[in-house]
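Thread: "does anyone have the structure for this chain?"

Original post by V.I.:
We have the sequence but no experimental structure in hand. Need at least a predicted one for the grant figures.
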Amino acid sequence: MGGHAFRSLYCPRFSLEIYLTTRTLATKVLNTLFTHVVEPAELPSKTNFGDLDFLVAGPKHAPSSPVDQPHLVELIKAALNTEYGRRSLPTDGVLFFAIPAPGREEEFHIQIDVHVVEVEGFEWNHFMYRYASGLKMVGSMVKPLGVTLDPKGCHVRVEEMERGDGPGSMVFVTREPNEVLEIVGLGRKFLEGGFGVNENCMDELLRFGECRLADCMDSV
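Reply from O.Q.:
Generated one for you, tokens below.
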């Protein structure tokens, strides 16, 4: 499935070659507008794509003011030289853009999703977005062990308090990716993008899941 933020445009899935060309172009543009720009690691064996995702923080035009998303949309549209750009509704920090496919401009468009976060949370969000949000799978695996991973960080849940007050039952532990990997027992490849093929990534998650299941069984 391709991009679907612009109903009037044809935004199909596209090849790795077009993906790499568009990523280079968009990265260069976004670096002129933000102090922090990254495209979270995709699954390594992926050969076609529905859109491009970028994580950004620190608008250079107003680094000390609250993020003005409508203004950001206009700035990025101008920098990408496109008329297509909008916020997600309701707004959740994601901005959508579309540009003509490089080399195939008359045929279709490429959707670019820009996720805007605070500078303080940039590294944590980058960590959470890696490998098609593979950390969401990890979060599901460690939840039975009393650990919660969410956009704010890693928390330990206090079982005695959970029934009465969900949010109040969580004790913040850390927002440092290295520390979280150590806590949950995952290798640094999830932080460094060290997987060669999809199977390596999935094997690591499967091994991790089996270990966590064993932990749960031991505690019964």
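V.I.: this helps a lot. Residues 14-117 form a domain with the Beta Polymerase; domain 2 fold (CATH 3.30.460.10).
O.Q.: and The chain is about 40% helix and 25% strand.
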